[in-house]
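Let us work through a complete example step by step.
Step 1: write down the sequence.
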Amino acid sequence: MPKPTPKNSEWLTRKELIDKRLADAGWRIVSEKQFDPAKPLHVYDRCAIEEGLPPNK
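Step 2: predict the structure and record it as tokens.
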């Protein structure tokens, strides 16, 4: 896990707290790269689409 910085603190919070709660509730975390908007939505039932780190400015 990367070291917390002001640029990635929201991402780390999501990874450490929210993603764990989603998984505990039976949800699957799907990366942005795995997500295919051309697929029907039922494929992503009980899925959370993971956001990447914001681009560097």
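Step 3: interpret the result. The helical segments are 9-24.
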